[in-house]
Every structure is written in C-alpha cells, then in structure tokens.
Amino acid sequence: MTDQSIRVVIVDDQPLFAAGLAMLIDAQPDMRCVGTAHDGGAALTLVRQVRPDVVLMDLGMPGLNGLEATRLVVAEPTPAKVVVVTTIRRDEAVYLALRAGATALLTKDALPAEVTRTIRDAVAGESLAAASAAVDVVREFARPAQTRTPDDTLAQLTAREREVFLLIARGLSNAEIADATVLSEATVKSHVRQVLGKLGLKSRVQVVAFAYENELMGARP
C-alpha cells in the first residue's frame, strides 16, 4: 500500500456489510478504506474530513438518505466519485442517484472482483456508462424533458466534442471512442472533460441520462 492508494469511504447502515467491504478494500494493494459511516449526514461529515477518492453509497438509510447524500457529495468543491450500492438495481431512486452524479452502481450481491474493478474504473474516469446495469436503469426511468432542438442543446460543444458526447451516450469506453474517431485515448479524455464541463455534468452516466432526457440519441454528430 502506498500514498497513491485509492482512498475509499463506505456508507451503509448495516455495520457487518460495511465491515466486509472495508476488509475487501484493505486487502487490495492499491486501496484503503479511510472511514465508514452509517447514515448520510455522518457520511457528508466524514467525506469533508478525509477527502476520499471514492464513496460506496448505500441508498436506503435512515435520516439523510443515500440519494440526498450523493447530491451533496458530488456538489463538494473537490467531489469524490460516488458508486451507488443497492439491493434493487431497477429502481427510480437508483436512476435519480445516477442522474445526480453518481458514477456507477453495484448490487450488494456483486462479486469482490466487480467491486474492486468498479472502484478502479471510477477513479480512472473510464466508461462506467458502458456498464449495462447503469445504462439499463437510465433507459428505463429517464423521461424526455426536451424543450430545445438538439442543435440548441449541444450548441456550446465543438463538432468533435459533439461526436464524443454521442459516443459516450451510447456507452462507449475511451478506447472504443478512440477507435471510432481515430484519436488517441489522451485526446479522447480531454474531449470527455470538456464535454462534462461545458454541459455541467459530473459523470459519464449523467451524459447518458442527459442524452435520453433531451432526446439526443438520434442526433447527428
């Protein structure tokens, strides 16, 4: 374990489940659990104290629930990546958490390798939107709120950024986007950052939700 370890906070109102996740994380050579909390209010306080890279966030907690806690965590000046941990995958609360800026979701029966891979991917900024579970939730619960044409909605993006936006919305990874656009992955990552910044979005899953809500999936690059 090094100073470059991925710092993880676990938020869950079941102490035994939280302890199990903490043991899994601390067993990884590149991760460490820097704290656990059992409700959303305590989670926000802890996040502000320890500044983790990733928060594993349960949604169904007493007091300040995981959805509200997610909104507050991603609104921090230097936000952590939030990974929703849920017992029910196909649920509107899960969609709302993803729409609020959560990076990905895990079900509580996920295999240890899936948990650790998702944490690493979240930090790397890789295509968590490509995780079919997250995209399926967005497709099921996103409701069109289109009031402008696609050209108006994406007007602030350059032609290349618009192309990248639509590929992100389809769930492609950086490597897949690089192949599709004949760009380097480094250039793709730069375009992804520009797309998120210009549209005020926090995650790639938010791009998927934004695209569905604004009926942009059929828009021209």
TrEMBL record:
DNA damage keyword on record: no
Residue ranges occupied by any Response regulatory domain in the UniProt entry: 7-123
Modification 4-aspartylphosphate occurs at: 58
SMART domains found in the cross-reference section: HTH_LUXR, REC
Record-annotated HTH luxR-type domain positions: 150-215
Protein name: Response regulator
PANTHER family, sorted: TRANSCRIPTIONAL REGULATORY PROTEIN NARL-RELATED, TWO-COMPONENT RESPONSE REGULATOR
